[in-house]
Amino acid sequence: MTTFLETTAIIGLIELALAAVLTLLPRVGKLGRAVSNACARAPMLDLILAALTWIPWLVAGLLAGWAGLAGAIFGQVLAIFVWVIIHELANRRAATGPRIGRFWNRRIGWWHNHLALWVSAVALPGLWVIRLTEIFGYPFLVWLLRFPAYRHGEWVNVSRQKFQGLIGHDLLWCLYCDWMTGVYSLGAEMLRNVESFWCPIRFYDGRKCEHCRIDFPDIDGGWVPADGSMRDVEELMQRKYGGSERSWFGHPARLTIDGTAPESKPHG
Asked: Mean per-residue pLDDT for 112-122?
């Protein structure tokens, strides 16, 4: 129990200190704003979020076992509640105005809303697996297959902290959604290249095609019909990948002014 309480206190204080620095940075002149903007985009954002999420789990778990891991998680949760209270007290005018959380508390009930938010936090480890795959796995496909490279900071960034009146509880969860949306979108973009490169065949299940074409537009933009032949597949691959272009069929790098898809155009 002592290990659990000590870890809770240490991690909670560290998290609060880091959150305080991040909160105050934009108010410390031009340099502070520049640093804050850098921290809001990958790769700096990855390091900061790792320090706020999984690094304490790893360190505490290695040093103090399951009690340390539990203490780290509990300390993080406590730090969240404390930061929310302080931030809302520091922004009393916004706190008494329109709020996302207050709206949903009235519509669906306080405990339904808050429990659902914490259930969504269960996705955090899975999102980190996706993010680490984007950082350390996908570059091998760029190197081996000449897949298009991406500026991660254009996808993985947070900016809702700049929205006027968004504070405390609402701000925290909106930043979480901000980050996860970028991680998911970049992962989907990378997977579009994988699918169209190796498996450009429509699914037999029409409903699956309908659902998946939102994230994989090539389903309706070039993939071979499910009743086609392997010769059709090979011809499609020759047509789409016979040159130097290795991006998915609807990638902007394939488009020219007249709407054609040059096979040798370099990546943008």
From this structure: 96
